[in-house]
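Hi there,

I know you've been waiting on this one. I reran it after we fixed the sequence typo, so this is the corrected version. Both the input and the resulting structure follow.
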Amino acid sequence: MKKALTLFVFITALHCFSQKKAVNNDVLTKFMNTITAEKLKTKLYIIASDEMEGRDTGSKGQKKAGKYLIDQYKKSKISYPKGVRSYYQSIPAAYLNAKNDENLPDSENIWAYIEGSEKPDEVLVISAHYDHVGVKNGDIYNGADDDGSGTVAVLQIAEAFQKAKKEGHGPKRSILFLHVTGEEHGLHGSRFYSEHPLFPIANTVADINIDMIGRRDFDHPDTNNYVYVIGADRLSSDLHNITVAQNDKYTHLDLDFKFNDPKDPNHFYERSDHYNFAKFGIPAVFLFNGVHADYHEKTDEVDKIEFDALAKRTQLAFVIAWDLANRPERITVDKLTK
């Protein structure tokens, strides 16, 4: 009888665990599916409009874009981080001009924050740069893919997490949604944040960086169902494994690791904002669609964005973030290559 009772308890516990896991999966899928092509399209047509004048670092157009981002966070009732008084991390011109002598004006990172319910002091960063290259010879370079696509992706991921929180499924760890400036002039905004972090570097569990996820590149002419994954395994086996597992379970993109090779001549790993986190030992994954003919051209316009691909890649970033924010233990740093 005792043996039978033990078996019954074990089977019951296993059944409950399976049910709980299924419920958790259903919850994640529900909020993942709030990230839609239509919502991303609506926001990108504003962020990458002529009104924003190409969003050059510190320009009037970039500041207008920053205000739009803040208005969206306010609309979603997502506040700025605790301990500060606004959505801005101000960066003085002297810092922006700390290497290239470009005479850039003052600029700002934009940040928003959802506090974790169980491990609030552990912080996940989700980043994208909201600057582009401005106006050249009277032509506006709208940067719809670079990096309007990543900018609106971060907005939608934040909105999805906030909806989850309202329904009682808020993240266990805190999440900082970070729109950085000055990327096109030398990764200045992310460098400034990493050197002047709001939360201690030791408490920052990972960075998910999103830079160009709305198009297809020269190497994928026949499909947009892919994304380049760069850097996930440089510092943490956990981060790589989570990225692969969450994609296998939820988004089913073809993960292309071509540019993750340390010997890749393009050196994309060192060319976007995640790198300034990795330099301080923070595991980082960079999602990227590769280079196309409109890269840094005035023809990088919204009408060329493939919104089905943008939505799916944004959903991948969301499900990676969900795992990182909710797993029992933070991921470990078990590699030395930065």
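Quick highlight: Residues 33-326 form a domain with the Aminopeptidase fold (CATH 3.40.630.10).

Best,
R. S.
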